[in-house]
Amino acid sequence: MRRTITATVNNTTGVMNRITGLFARRHFNIESITVGMTENPEVSRMTFVVNVSDQRGLDQVIKQLNKQVDVLKVRDITDEAIVARELAMIKVMTGSGQRGEISDLIAPFRATVIDVGRESVTIQVTGDTPKVEALIDLLRPYGIKEMARTGVTAFQRATKKSNDQTRYSIIN
Amino acid sequence: MNTRVREVKGRELKDENQEMSGSSMLIQALARENVDTIFGYPGGAILPTYDEIYRTGIRHILSRHEQGAIHAAEGYARVSGKPGVCVVTSGPGATNVVTGIADAMIDSLPLVVVTGQVATSVIGTDAFQEADILGITMPITKHNFQARTVEDLPRIIREAFHIATTGRPGPVVIDLPKDVSIASGMFHYDDEPNLPGYQPTYTPNKLQIRKLAEAVTKAKRPVILSGAGILHAGASPELLEFVEQQQIPVASTLLGLGGFPGTHELALGMAGMHGTYAANMALHEADLLINIGARFDDRVTGNLEHFAPQATVAHIDVDPAEIGKIIETHIPVVGDAKEALRLLNEVNPQPGESVRWRMKVDEWQQEFPLWYKEGSEYIKPQKLTELVYEKTNGEAIITTDVGQHQMWAAQYYKFDHPNAWVTSGGLGTMGFGFPAAIGAQFAEPDRQVVAILGDAGFQMTMQELSILQELNLPVKVLLVNNASLGMVRQWQQLFYEERYSNSLFPIQPDFVKMAEAYDIKGYKITDENEVAGVLEEAFNYNGPVVIDCRVHEEENVYPMIAPGQGHHQMEGVKP
Predict the structure, then answer these.
(1) Which of A82, B139, B345, B525 is the most exposed place for a label (fewest CB within 10 A)?
(2) How confident is the model at residue B191 (pLDDT cuts 50, 70, 90)?
(3) Is the pLDDT at B9 greater than 50, yes or no?
(4) Is B324–A56 a contact, with Cβ atoms under 8 angstroms apart?
């Protein structure tokens, strides 16, 4: 199962190394990691999207993260009310004749063209992962020349309306 | 202990809030942490610290290889319960302690390791004797630090000791660049470290304790698996009280030996690959398994599919990540073993109806005791271990490496008290036992310390004979010499059709001559009738001894759970 986990960590040198090293040596399967500063310059926020086989695997990821001295707080927010966003830049092969068509196509996604070349355009899209993937699917037939994605960063919503799944963990 | 070393005189604590060098801060901080012994080896990047050691006279034990120093620090920590401190230089000095750090990590030993580092101005330039020790030790330390400024140093040292010794103990590395140890700054030592991301749980959840108490009352076939967590928590008295109250048999892990008295009628001995039949069968047939401070290591569990198939599993551990890591756990108790057992004893649950179970367990013990064939022309290593047990009245501190001799020691030396058994469990480090014995002797100067070693493992760190010679340290080295890598040879015999690839040692040094080269008493025994006499002489001698005991080279360790098998599939349970 795919889970979204956020962690606040001390903003010290090597903390990223500690976390990625932990994932690698414990054979945890990660889809993406994002990291950036928070409102407190001494604290960074990390968002992981991980693939785990079961609840026990998920518990291990959370507990091993918690064990790190530089990790302040870990939370699995998958089942909570969250805003999750990623940004993707997609360079699509296109002649001048197709540019209008592509503009129409990306409009409902509120994506924008941020660079235009003779044989390609670069599109920027932000949103949750399903939305980004849907746009990529639509653009694929035109020929995707290059693509870069930031990975998901996520936040709990101000108004919490959890979808009420009971979770069992000895930590939380 | 008859040592020629200067006793610690460097206890002149300087006042706080004084300007001093980084290396001076380090020694001052060590004094505040009540460190009486440092194990180490000097070198370029750590010179300022060694100058401070020289000037303060704090006791420093000079090993002859950094690996010797770190294993000695481990032995010291294991026996004393205090953090072992090891100081080495940068680059090769630091990489030479990596094995010991990994060993301490997997066996949860509190260590503070100070590694010298090149000056901050040249870090990252591949400078002379530079190694990225922070990166190298990240996965094998509980935490590690690099002091980038001298102002940070006191805080880092305090945090290092705090992290190493609290919660689940472990090794912490402090990387100390040379310029930082020279630079001067204000020394201020806080007692309470500020570590919001590190808050170990000691007090268990009351609800889980109640659930466990109920399970105890309901259980008809309960068993306890006692691990090293009992030793780290100092929970032996509470465990004994609980067991006697509840009449639950106790199987021990390799590292947990001594946590519960080995000669107690409810002691089943060691569980696992070379454990006793009774311990393994009890785990297999139990309906309630209470794991206290063990981590369900694969050498204990065997094939997980067959592990404790009928049991409700309760697991008490101070490290929440150990609970549910290997075995699905029904009653998780996160907390200190001592505290958990104290609360359990307070609840004092009604013991379950388990008389028949205890009879069954007794039957297993009677019918399938440990066994070996006596009366051949060779010295039997099992017999040798039994004689060591006898001649030391079971009261010695025993250290070992890894392998056959280790298993025989674990099987035949019945530890009645905690912290007398020093062995490399999780990492299985050859060369551990001898330097660990040196550290153990420093922790307990008046006790008999016996290093039971294989001939191969001894050859990995035997240069530390220098320490025995220099300090006249009365460690007894007993070589269970089968002229081979015994356990490797055993596996090649059993699983590789006797293709003994590189496991036989046809050429060996004359260990007696070698001991004598260090001015140490050496004995060689080849006849079983001599064993008792030589042991007696050695143990009565107040000084170091090396005994080269030639044992039956083809002896195997039994009983055994072959790889991939379950507890109920033990082999070699009877002659």
Answers:
(1) B139
(2) confident
(3) no
(4) yes
Beta carbons of B168 and B108 less than 8 angstroms apart:
yes
Asked if residue B409 and residue B360 are part of one domain, the reply reads: no
Q: Which pairing describes strands A2-10 and A71-76: parallel, antiparallel, or unpaired?
A: antiparallel
| pLDDT bucket at A159, cuts 50 / 70 / 90 | confident
**Active-site option among B9, B16, B18, B128:** B128
Confidence of residue A161 (pLDDT cuts 50, 70, 90): low
Q: Name the residue in chain B with its Cα closest to that of A55.
A: B324
Average the pLDDT over B381-386 and give the result.
97
Residues B399 and B535 in one domain: yes
Q: Confidence band (pLDDT; 50, 70, 90) for B239?
A: very high
pLDDT for the residue numbered B7: 39
- Tell me: pLDDT of B403 over 90: yes
Architecture of domain A2-76: 2-Layer Sandwich (3.30)
User: In the prediction, which pLDDT does A97 show?
Assistant: 85
pLDDT tops 50 at residue B197 = yes
The shortest CB-CB distance from B196 to any of A17, A25, A72 is to A72
Q: Is B487 a catalytic residue?
A: yes
Task: Give the closest of B142, B197, B323 to A10, CB-based.
Answer: B197
Determine the Cα angle at B243 with ends B242 and B245, to 5°.
Answer: 65
Residues B168 and B229 in one domain: no
Q: Is the dihedral of CA B355, B356, B361, B367 positive or negative?
A: positive
What per-residue confidence (pLDDT) applies to A163? 52
Distance CA B409, CA B388 (A): 9
- Domain assignment present for B91: yes
The Cα B331–Cα B338 span in angstroms is: 17
DSSP-assigned states of every residue in B382-438:
HHHHHHHHHHTTT-SEEEE-SSHHHHHHHHH----STT-EE---SS--TT-HHHHHH
Say yes or no for a CB contact (<8 Å) between A69 and B319. Answer: no
Q: How confident is the model over A89-111, as a mean pLDDT?
A: 92
- Does A2 contact chain B (CB < 8 Å)? no
B140 with B235, same domain: the answer is: no
B178 catalytic, yes or no? Answer: yes
Distance from CA of A128 to the nearest CA of B (A): 30
Give the number of domains in chain B: 3
Region A83-154: CATH code: 3.30.70.1150
